[in-house]
Amino acid sequence: MSDTPKLAHFKGPEALAAFNHLHTVIWAFNIDDHKFWWANDAALKFWEKRSLEEFLSVDLSSDSPIVRRRLLDVFESASSGRTIEENWTLYPGGIPKMVVVTFTAIWIEDHKKAVLIEASPQLKEELDPRAKRMLEAARHTPLLISSFDMHGKLLAQNPAAASLYGATTDDEVSLESRYGQTNIVPHMLQQTSEKQSFHADVKIDTSKGERWHTITAEPGRDPVTGHQVFVVTEEDVTDKILAQQELKQLNLTLEQRVAERTEKLSQAIQEAVNANKAKTDFLAMMSHELRTPLNAIIGFSEMMSYQVYGPITEKQEITLRDINKSGRHLLEQINDLLDASTIDRGELNLFESDFLLKPALEYCVKAFELEADKKQQTLELQVPEFPITLNADEHRITQILMNLISNAIKYTPEEGNITVSSGLNDKGELYLSVTDNGIGISADRLQFVTQAFVQIDISSSFTSGKGVGLGLYITSQLLAAHGGRLEIESKEGVGTTMCAILPKERTKLGC
Q: Which run of H or E residues covers position 477?
């Protein structure tokens, strides 16, 4: 606490010599060191000491923590300007004397906290009004207050304690009779005998049945005999303890329910994984089984179209071309299913090598020129003037480009424009871009188009040759396997740009 001008500062005991001529009992107490600092003649007589040296040598180390805390509180209150007057029981010569003491906060040597104490002995037959009020408060408080000697015998208790425990006389009550069913008695006696506080929450048998009490025991001295005692205070906390136990039980129940739900979820996830694996295995098996007869159909239809088995009519030739076209389209769908099942099983392998990008782009564009011409579409290729070498699986990169170009042609109306371009972005990444002015993709569908078996909603004029919705899924997965990604920008009724991005580590300039 900072120095306050209102407090007197006595640098040495001689500064208090003027108080020696008073008949009032006055002494000074050093709070920081917890010892007597000075006393006038009247105080020496009160304390039954022959000299000031004898008075100052009194050992106060046995004082309880409550006394020490109270003196600090008194100093703080008195230093703020309040007048502190209390009833204390003091023990001059070991004999208890009830006095009314008035405290004045002061500073002493080395700027230590101290109080100047003026004591007025109190007549035994008349209590100070504050003492009466304190007794009345103890009588009406719901807290249970009991005083025991160091042998565990009850000395006094307030009405709340007597009512709850049903004792008719103090002789019938002891620590064992009251708390014997718990394990706190030895600990309470040990700690209070060592001038320490005791604190515990225990279940007690009372006249109201079993109740939870917070029990606090503080060491003190008997104001009648001066012997060491301890005061036990009890507060009923049954409702709080039961609420805590209920909350704990709810938490345990919740944890159990979460564990059960987690187990069910794990089972459901495993079932889904098994079902997906079964689906993938089935698709892979069926794809292999269907490819053999389809290849035969495509081969025989071509041989018959070339009249290997004899002449055919014009009408038969048209029919054979349709059979061949349908067979090839179906084979593409089966190949997509086979790729998707390979990806889902995590068995996709890349066969990487260095190759020039421009020839691969030209091959892909040339493969779709005839299909674009049929719809009178413009298919344009734009590549940088400088050569770019790409380290990747050339077959898979070609498959990515063909999927993007095929989508653009499919969803762009007749006389539309499609541009295939490549280059390096500002991060040094390689981009392979396919831009069209087709029907576009609605914003609410854009985030789903790279999922398996998802198709863009299109009008009937674009349904010819519609696939199973695996093209963009396979494309995005092939790019991810190369460490790349697929970026899509689209506006419904305006067109779409699909951009395959590959990391710069896979490209180098030049041959």
A: helix 471-481
Q: In sequence order, what are the residues at sequence separation of 6 or more whose Cβ sits closer than 8 angstroms to the Cβ of residue 474?
A: 336, 339, 340, 343, 399, 403
* C-alpha angle 324-325-326 in degrees, rounded to nearest 5: 95
Host H or E run for residue 466: none
Residue 493, amino acid: G
Question: Among 292, 321, 290, 291, which Cα is nearest to 304's?
Answer: 321
User: What CA–CA distance (Å, rounded) separates 45 from 337?
Assistant: 111
Q: Where are the alpha helices (DSSP H) in 306-435?
A: 314-344, 357-367, 369-374, 394-410
Are 173 and 157 spatial neighbours (Cβ–Cβ below 8 Å)? yes
Yes or no: say if 456 and 470 are a contact pair by the CB < 8 Å rule: no
Whole-model pTM: value is 0.44
Residue written as tokens 């710069």?
A: 504
Chain segment 50-65, per-residue pLDDT in tens: 999 999 999 998 887 8
DSSP state of 18: G
Alpha carbons 442 and 454: distance in angstroms, whole number: 14
* Contact criterion met (CB below 8 Å) for 337 and 473: no
Question: In the beta sheet, which residues pair with residue 495?
Answer: 491
pLDDT tens, position by position, 309-344: 788 888 888 888 788 777 777 767 777 766 777 777
